[in-house]
Amino acid sequence: MTQSETHTIDEASPPVRRGPGRPRHADTEERAFRAVLELFGQKGWSGLSLDGVATHAGIGKSSIYLRWKDKRDLLLDAIRHLEAQNVTPAGEDLDIREYLNQHACARAEFFLGEYGPAMAHMFSAAVVNPEEFKEIREENISRGVLALAGRIEKAIADGELPPGTSVHHLLDAIEGAIFVHMLISSSRSSREELEAGLKDYVRELVDIQLRGVGVSV
After folding, report:
1. Between 20 and 30 A from 135 (CA), which of 3, 76, 79, 154?
2. Can the keyword Lipoprotein be found in this entry's annotation (predicted)?
3. Is the dihedral angle over the CA atoms 38, 43, 46, 49 positive or is it negative?
4. What are the DSSP E strand ranges found in 64-149?
5. What is the pTM of this model?
6. Which pLDDT tens digit goes with each residue over 90-120?
7. How many CA atoms within 13 Å lie on the side-chain side of 11?
8. In whole angstroms, what is the distance from residue 179 CA to residue 119 CA?
9. Rounded CA separation 121/117 (Å)
10. Which one has a higher pLDDT value, 15 or 52?
11. For residues 131 and 126, what is the distance between their CA atoms, to the nearest angstrom?
């Protein structure tokens, strides 16, 4: 075959097309956040990995590793994103009793929600893995608590609560009771049953705590 014949064949040959490969997703972060929270809720910290998140989310591993250096960073971003959707009550127009009721209901519904198992694992994992969870603990576990602490401090300053009321004791009593109630009751009651009795439980819880600090309800 001559050189000219070779050129003719090359020019006539169609270009080679590459396969499409794995498609890119515009919602990669949303899918990764959902996957990491679901896996964390199912398997805990030790069972979590970036490879597992990629597989669970149905996205390429490179998409995960280009965005997050490790599972801690991905989980932290997912929790930040989740907390941004978790609206706390606007305290300006609510008296302290109603604020506490709405806050406690919102926290309970959060634990009852889709990512309740992930939040339960987060508290225990923060105790077992203090260094890995230091930033997550400071940003997430403290965030909802700090909002409530600020509102209790305002109630004391405005005279809604007696002087000398312990912010931390009142806060711990409500936050702790909600967490334990959701954790323990969920093992013996259905979600529907818990939701049906939630407002009554919260109302009684808040009233007990307010009477304990000397407020007539």
Report:
1. 154
2. no
3. negative
4. none
5. 0.73
6. 656 889 999 999 989 988 888 888 888 888 8
7. 6
8. 10
9. 6
10. 52
11. 8
Classified by CATH at the fold level, domain 25-85 comes out as: Arc Repressor Mutant, subunit A (1.10.10)
* 109 C-beta neighbours (distance < 10 Å), count: 16
Q: Domains of the chain: which residue ranges? A: 25-85, 89-212
- Homologous superfamily in CATH for domain 89-212: Tetracycline Repressor, domain 2 (1.10.357.10)
Q: Which DSSP state fits 1? A: -
pLDDT in tens, 31-54: 999 999 999 999 999 999 999 999
What percent of the chain is predicted at pLDDT more than 70?
79
Between CA 57 and CA 27 the distance in angstroms is 11
- Looking at residue 21, the DSSP 8-state letter turns out to be -
- For CA atoms 75, 34, 65, 68, the dihedral sign is negative
Give the separation between CA 185 and CA 173, rounded to whole angstroms.
17
Average pLDDT for the chain: 82
What value, to the nearest 5°, has the Cα angle with vertex 161 and ends 158 and 141?
95
**What are the structure tokens assigned to 133, written together?**
């969870």
Scan for tokens 């997430």, then name that residue. 140
Domains 25-85 and 89-212 fall in the same CATH topology: no
Q: For tokens 């090359």, name the residue.
A: 10
